[in-house]
Amino acid sequence: MRSRRPRRHVLPGFGLAxxxxxxxxxxxxxxxxxxxxxxARRMTWTGFVAAVTSARALAAFQLTxxxxxxxxxxxxxxxxxxxxxxxxxxxxxxxxxxxxxxxPFALPTSVAGIALTAVxxxxxWLGRQLAPLGIxxxxxxxxxxxxxxxxxxxxxxxxxxxxxxxxxPEIEEAAASLGASRFQAFRRVxxxxxxxxxxxxxxxxxxxxxxxxxxxxxxxxxxxxxxxVVALLIVARLEQFDYEGxxxxxxxxxxxxxxxxxxxxxxxxxxxxxETAA
Amino acid sequence: xxxxxxxxxxxAIVRGGLIALALGFLACFLFVPLAVVFVEAFAGxxxxxxxxxxxxxxxxxxxxxxxxxxxAVPLNTLFGLAAAWTLARFRFPGRGLLVTLIDLxxxxxxxxxxxIFVLMFGAQGLLGPWLTAHGIRIIFAVPGILxxxxxxxxxxxxxxxxxxxxxxxxxxxxxxxxxxxxxxxxFRRVTLPNIRxxxxxxxxxxxARAIGEFGAVSVxxxxxxxxxxxxPLHVEILYNEYNFAAAFAVASVLALMALATLAAKSVLGRRxxx
Lengths: 278, 274
What we know:
heterodimer; A: mainly alpha; MetI-like fold; 2 domains; 0% strand; B: mainly alpha; 13 helices
């Protein structure tokens, strides 16, 4: 066991590194953030409430939360499937597929946005196949879900993958020798051990989806009340120089972001404790 | 590689079905959209493709994107190193708060990240009157683009380095010091070589995001062609003008960058695991 707690002053550079870190964060992150608080103070409480509870704002909140939740759930199901296939089975091109899972992290969101729109518009490669079935994806709420699913895809896969890799094959053997079917072993033995990782991946995908802008703006069609997400409404208000309205929405979103960040940290601390206890 | 033949697994038909389902899902969301970018980019032929890339505003956009990365990547790498050294090597009151603060930009919507700079430095912003009086433009100008990009890419390097350095421990560094190395010598000869692959990994991710950031930059940029238009924003402008082939041509350059990032990430990931 290596010492994780070096005594102070044994290693040099604490003052310099801490000073630089705090100064940099203060100037780049804290100072601008305090601007939101100060601007929000210039607003009255009734003005704030009116801005975040207007019919258009409520519709945007509802769509954003609903679509983000749907996309995160789709990613839980398919992310688990993709992680399972990548860890357990071998097939030609597995490594390439594995590397491609991170594409949504690496691809600029505007590129993702126009590519998804081109694929799912009624004349697009996949949209064309779906149109005769009466399914339209681009420029509808379904399009928002598709974009948010794309953007959240790597989170669940990357959260579950290492846990699946580290899983002791003996517990599955034990379940099988006790007469469990493969499906029973999966549900009773595997699923509980990967549940914390699934939850972490879900929360991260959900949090990312809530604030997403670039990939949504093209495919959603941006119809107020219908397909306008919160991030789009903030931009729309800014473009109309409605700084108060934009700030109010941003403040509401910041509060949600903090809450989710806290949740992620708690979930991760919980799963670490479970791991060390196991 | 899995070679253990006695390992319990599913019947071949279930395996095949699950693989097909997973690949089908990935095809709909990853492979087909990626392919579309390149197919659409060359829809008008190779000559049009090149023409839309060497067009002056496209070149200006690519140049500004390169400049943004050249500023944001070194500065945030330096920050990541300092933050990782602080967090991985020392325990002090307020450490947890510092970790949360560093992660904060990842939790904030890109649009909100752009907005906070507008509220601070915009014409109607808190410092707006002072900046205008002194003739300094930040919002709807290049400094705003740099600031917004730096803000959203703050966490990348520290996030990679902190767990890596904690796992490595500080024994080698302490040995170097005991043998008479100065602080900088220890850092250059011991710390940096130990963390180089993790560091490079973080820099690759940082670079990809700095090049590709859209939401935050879109809010502060003002979309002035040839002046404050980055490559991802240029894609949007061309697309909204129904100039699809040109939009996808610029997008294909960015997609190539993303593919290079994935390749580097996969190689570096294996180096770190070793």
